[in-house]
Every structure is written in structure tokens, then in C-alpha cells.
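Deliverable D4.2, example record:
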Amino acid sequence: MIKVIDIHNYLPHQKPMLMVDVILGIDEENVETAFALREDNIFIENGALCEAGLIENAAQTCSAIVARSYLIDDEDQDRLNVDVIGFISSIKTIKIHALPKTGCDITTRAHLESRFDTGTYTTCMMSCSSYCNGELLLEGEINLFIQER
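Output generated by the structure prediction step:
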């Protein structure tokens, strides 16, 4: 696994929709990210991250694995001027155990369960889990669609 990578190398998201700060480790099948939850986050409701924000954090973490194949070449060099679009195509399962309060550092892990590449787009199923100080916040399986524009 590679350590501490700028998320902008893997996601086109910008604030206020960027829900991951850094990639702590990534390889072809696994990724781990970190996200510091601040009071000005658009998904904060009553001092805690709402369900949609927690799911968006998980989805952005998951998409980093597949986006990596579009944005990084075989020698781990950035491919410049690559424009990709991606979205959640379906949520197979999601269980939310707790909503983190502002000030929490969220760690999210994802594992590639299956992947289908057509040459024009990629679909994949990812399992993921999110934590704050060791407490399980979310676990589930998300299907993603990613395509180079």
C-alpha cells in the first residue's frame, strides 16, 4: 500500500462536496481514507454528520480504487488531462451504526469485491466500513459506475 496520497489525484470532487481529505493507503483492491469532520460541512445536522454525508464519504473512498486505473498509469505516474465521471449505481446494503459528531476524524476502508470493465466504462461492487475512534459508523456494499468522458 502507498501512504498518504492527495485525494485530488483520484477524485474530481471539490469543496463542499469533497468528503475525503487524504488516502492513507491504496492498492488494486483496497483503500483507506481519512476525513476530518468540521462544523462547516454541508452534511452536518444538529452537530453530527447525517446519513447522506456518511454514505458520500464511503462512496468517494470506494471510487478511489477504480478511479486509480483511469488516472494513474502502470508506472504509478499521474495521467494528465483525464476527465472521469462516476456515481453510485446502487446501494446493495448499508447499515449505519452511529453518526459522528463534528471534530471526529473518520477513517473509511473499502475492498473491491468485483469489477467489470467494458473499455468504455467500469462497474464495480465495493464493501466498505467507516470508523471514528475505533467505533463502527457504517458498513455496507456499494455499486459504482465510472467512465472516462
